[in-house]
Amino acid sequence: MRHLTPLQRFADQSLVIRATIALACFALALAGCGSVMPGSVVGDAGGGAVVMTGLGPGVDDDTVKVVFVGVDLDAVKAVTGFKTASAGDPEKQVEALEAWVNANGGVGGRKLDAVFRLYDAQNDSAAAEESLCKGIVQDDKAFAVVLTGQFQENARPCYAQAQTLVLDATLVATDDATYKELAPYLWSPSYPSYDSFVRAFVKTLSEQAFFEGRNEVGVVAADNAINRATMEDLAIPLLKDAGVKAEVVWIDSTSQSSLMVGTGEGAVTFRSKGIDRVMFLGGARMASLFATQAESKEFKARYAISTFDNPTFFINNPDLLSPSIMKGMVGVGFAPSQEVADDQLAFPGTDAEQKCADIYAEAGIAFESREAARVAMPYCDAALLLQAGSTGLTDNFNAGAWGAAVEKLGSAFVPATGFTGSLGPGRHAASGAYRVLKFDDACGCFVYEGGDVDFPTS
Fold first, then answer.
1. Taking a C-beta distance cutoff of 8 angstroms, is the pair 106, 59 a contact?
2. Which of 94, 327, 365, 450 is the most buried if burial means most Cβ atoms within 10 Å?
3. Using N-to-C axis directions, what is the helix angle for 376-390 and 90-103, rounded to 10°?
């Protein structure tokens, strides 16, 4: 069970981080991230939503400042050797979005002032993410931040404490409780809530007979507070209802080395227990690392797969993986750029995806494939959701007022990254549907089976 809220965990972690840095003489100026509180809180609307009056941070009569965080994915590829389509120039993509938004009404009649910041994901840590947060809320004084590549637990609470809106473009597991605790500051314009995903994942695996003939399933789970709470309160009971006991291997995902050690030990554990069905919960690159080590540990199994596991990795890196690893993979997909090739689903494939592609095309930016647009499309979702929620905001342009407006959008906002929309009262994650995802031996690729299926909410 969760004993601390994200804000409480952030406060504790913040103190530990600063003490550690002081002792180690790190040259990082982190003081103050958790104490900056611009704006004025005037009440509580219930359900955890904070109501504010006046202008939020980064907003004046003419402009709204938004920071887009980017990650140098080509540098990551150079270090890991993993193959993936180039995501292009994220800074130019942000410039294209800024130009289009400002040429089409701006944000509530104000100009979008888009700032790009590059984050070094190779050195990702709680300290680095707090430092990034400090720079954005204190130096940039941004109204909102679009996050990519931030996986540490302290990141989102840091922005919420500073009353900075977070438009989360990171494929990270965020549960309903965290959205509620950090309301109205935390939103996902592109992806589903983690609770809805877990319900869909277990339901689909059961319907696809993944557990058939087995009384136990191996679960490789990221060891963090959100995932532990979701596992204990939701996933394990759902698996029990599906007729299988979960043998859970908890993985420390805070570094590449801990991921490697944990996934390798997990393969040995499952092998010793005779488990031959494995699923992954929590994202964090665990599936790819686990699969690359499984054969060296003489472990063979059938794997479940989901968008969180980056299915395209398995297709793009045949030199690292035996084809037998993908045989029988089944699960759920909700972001085509992470899982299927364009010959399986035409690109652009939806009105929302076409709109974003057209926005970039106006700036001379084209994508050789949907996978190459896997960063650009979530950026576009964030910019368009920001604009949609800003309509009519004048004197009270702040996260509370913006959030109330976005909830009224309901399913009308459809992310370019997914299939359907799912915003509404108390719902802060925009992706509303998934499709059954399978590995097809004939094409040697992942394919969708059937149409859109709504994410279950309970």
1. no
2. 94
3. 30
Would you state the pLDDT for residue 77? Answer: 55
Sequence length of the chain is 458
Residue 336 pLDDT: 97
Domains by residue range for the chain, with CATH: 6-191+351-427 (3.40.50.2300), 195-333+435-454 (3.40.50.2300)
Closest residue by Cα to residue 403 from 165, 85, 196, 200: 165
* Phi, psi (deg, nearest 5) at residue 86: -65, 135
Share of the chain above pLDDT 70, in %: 86
Tokens of 206: 């059961």
Dihedral angle sign, alpha carbons of residues 438, 297, 121, 37: positive
Query: How does the average pLDDT of the chain come out, rounded?
Result: 87
CB atoms within 10 A of CB 70: 22
Residue 4 token pair? 């601390």
Query: pLDDT of 127-182, one tens digit each?
Result: 888 999 999 999 999 999 999 988 778 889 999 999 999 999 999 899 999 999 99
Contact by Cβ (8 Å): 179, 198? no
Q: For residues 366 and 229, what is the distance between their CA atoms, to the nearest angstrom?
A: 41
Record the pTM.
0.88
378, 431 Cβ separation under 8 angstroms: no
Distance CA 283, CA 307 (A): 9
